[in-house]
Amino acid sequence: MQGLEFSVVFENMNILLHGMFWTVVLCSSASLLSIVVAVVLAMTGISKLKPLRSATFFFLWVFRGTPLLLQLFLFYFGLPQIGLYLSPIITGIIGLTLHFGVYNADVLRAGILGVETGQHEASRSLGLSYFQTMRKVIIPQALRNVSPAVGNNLIALLKESSLVSIITVPELTLSAQRAISETFRPFEFYFAAGALYYVVNWGLEFILQRVEARTALTR
Amino acid sequence: MISLKDIWKSFGDNQVLKGISLEVERGKILVIIGPSGSGKSTLLRSINHLETIDRGEIWVDGVQVNAPLKGRKFEKHINRVRQEMGMVFQHFNLFPHMTVMENITMAPMLLKKIPREKADAQARGLLEKVDLADKMNCYPVQLSGGQKQRVAIARALAMEPKVMLFDEVTSALDPELIGEVNKVMKRLASEHMTMLIVTHEMRFAAEVADHVIFMADGVIIEEGPPEEIFSNPAHERTRRFLFEVFKS
């Protein structure tokens, strides 16, 4: 029996912090982009044009019905076959963005439909077009109404982001594995990586709470 | 200013407007009264194309609102036409995520490209007019019903409309708050705004109206100057309605 020796973690802290940095980059970009994707998909999902609506539902159905890991493999190993080479980090961002964009789109679509028709009418009666009404009046309210649900999805995104270690994105989980392969100390490094995920999560929840508090007054 | 010619509208099998025609002259105030379900709100809403009519013509300031255009062309047309008409709703429909100030300045800044400072100055003037200068940084949720409705009036006025449409704007208010909204509307009347008002407030109607229309079951039963309609109605249906209203 080897026993536990946490000092080795502190000696290799820079490897973990480097990984944590990439996790933060990966997750913050994927989070923001997933909301953009959600807005687009929610809008096309309630469009008057049937083909657009059907295409959206097909897209949602595919991405919701298949595992994230498989999607990442497809992007990373499959796309080069058709001549599309993406770096691991870009692949990771795209994969997480689409996967969670789809979840956020579903939530947001319900949020849009939940905004009173009176809001549409007031906005249109001032002379705003459909898209101006969506942009200025409906989507901001819908996002506020669904911010707790979207927040949950973003927390899930942060945790699921460890999957992209498999396509060699140098994020926190992969960094921990690299440190382990040098030091043969799995318990210490997985434990430390877990603690760092918790720290990032904490930061995210802090931001989410701030957002909710700020919008509480305006709902 | 407003001219409706033979307006027909149904919701499914329910024929709610059966050939309504009316005129509102520039600077005049037309009040429409009538029992619930008489079609008066639907009529008002169709002037703004919030309801699509089945037949007839709607003209506002020489422009046909329900112009025979299709698709995107009609959208453009109606957005332009709506900028000339202010509408105030029973349930205020203020934008809850914007401050009072933003509620008022949003449309002028977005649609007329008015710079912020100018829009803000205009909004401050309008808020003074509706006695709410001290509330400009509040959110709607912080206001009473009467205050919300006055902000909604200011919001509509910010587009400098040629006509104002009021759809039962005091019906959702507590009785003690009705007066402050009516006062603002009277102030508008004294400035010769062209107004079309649907209301249940008979006393207010009698005070401000130049012309009163009594509607029931989708038709105009009777119309005339307020003195005539309220003190000496010609039709049995009008008399019955006024009796019921004043009884309570």
Descriptive report:
The complex is a heterodimer of chains A (219) and B (248). With 219 residues, chain A is mainly α. In chain A, 79% of the residues lie in helices and 0% in strands. Chain A contains 10 helices and no strands. In chain A, helix 2 packs antiparallel against helix 9 (172-183) and helix 6 (117-125) packs antiparallel against helix 7 (130-145). The radius of gyration of chain A is 21 Å and the shape is elongated. Chain B has 248 residues and is of the alpha/beta class. Chain B contains 9 helices and 10 strands. Chain B has helices spanning 40-47, 71-83, 100-111, 116-129, 145-157, 175-190, 202-208, 226-231, 236-247, and strands at residues 2-11, 14-24, 29-33, 55-60, 63-64, 85-88, 163-167, 194-198, 211-216, 219-224. In chain B, the strands form 2 sheets. In chain B, strands 6-7-8-3-9-10 form a 6-stranded mixed beta sheet, sandwiched between helices. In chain B, strands 2-1-4-5 form a 4-stranded antiparallel beta sheet, with helices on one face. In chain B, helix 3 (100-111) packs across helix 4, helix 3 packs parallel to helix 5 and helix 5 runs parallel beside helix 6. The longest helix of chain B is centred in the C-terminal third of the chain and has 16 residues, at 175-190. Chain B is globular. The two termini of chain B are 36 Å apart. The mean pLDDT of chain B is 93.
- Shape designation of chain B: globular
Order of helices and strands of chain A: HHHHHHHHHH
Major protein interface: A-B, 23 and 29 residues
Q: Can you tell me the overall shape of chain A? A: elongated
How is this structure best summarized?
Chain A is mostly helical and 219 residues long. Chain A has one domain: MetI-like (MetI-like fold), CATH 1.10.3720. Chain A contains 10 helices and no strands.
